[in-house]
């Protein structure tokens, strides 16, 4: 693993990870993922694909991933982008006071490497929606149409449903509203289509995304960043637009941060939303 002072070793109940710029709680609240949940014991549950893991924070720092080393190496290390040194990105933001404050508040955020199909559906759901409602809708789809993977503390865990599992199903239980027709149309694409999409360059991938049902500029940029890990993508939603007006007087050039603009966006989103919620907005 790259990055300064990153350590990873086997312990009795899994793999102990200690790495800078990594905070599972911050990632869970960053708006990029909806399948990391807090547990009653202070730990976390993360689900991706057909895998799930309990993550236990340690008092002296680091996290225990309760899984075999092979699963950690093959699934969770790439999922959390743990081979990337985010300190390199952070050190290039030193001339921006707002970003430096954002690093203090949310410097443990990383850009996850998530499933493309899941991200397309999730961010179509996200339109005109808020994070708690998106999370509830995603969990409803998983519970009603996904595959049961196991349980933690009596809580049953399900995979995100495939297109085949959603196709021709009554999705009314998820209260999708106008978004339901978009998701049903997306289910008609074959798995090979998504694989070919992932092979496109940035311009080609975005063009294809914008031609999909229910996908506009914001959703396309979210899918580019969170589903394809295209780090130059800089999604703009209501929060980001408000932040640009408020902090940057209406003008922010994300091209200054080529190669990690999406990470900048996540820091800004997390910190500004935290500021506004603290102010009672």
Keywords, separated by commas or semicolons:
281 residues; alpha+beta; TATA-Binding Protein; 6-stranded antiparallel beta sheet; 8 strands; 13% strand
Brief synopsis:
The protein has helices at residues 24-28, 69-79, 86-91, 97-106, 116-125, 131-145, 163-166, 179-186, 191-198, 202-210, 217-226, 238-247, 261-278, and strands spanning 7-11, 14-18, 36-38, 44-48, 51-57, 63-65, 148-152, 155-158. With 281 residues, the chain is an alpha+beta fold. Helix 5 packs antiparallel against helix 11 and helix 10 packs across helix 11 (217-226).
* Rg: 19 Å
Pattern of helices and strands = EEHEEEEHHHHHEEHHHHHHH
Question: Total domains, how many?
Answer: 2
Task: Name the helicity range.
Answer: 40-55%
Mean of residue pLDDT? 94
* Beta-strand percentage range: 5-15%
- Specify the overall morphology: globular
Broad CATH class of the largest domain: Mainly Alpha
Instruction: Supply the number of helical segments.
Output: 13
The CATH superfamily name of the largest domain is Hypothetical protein, domain 2
What order do the strands of the largest sheet run in, or round the barrel if closed?
A: 1-2-6-5-4-3
Low-confidence stretches: none
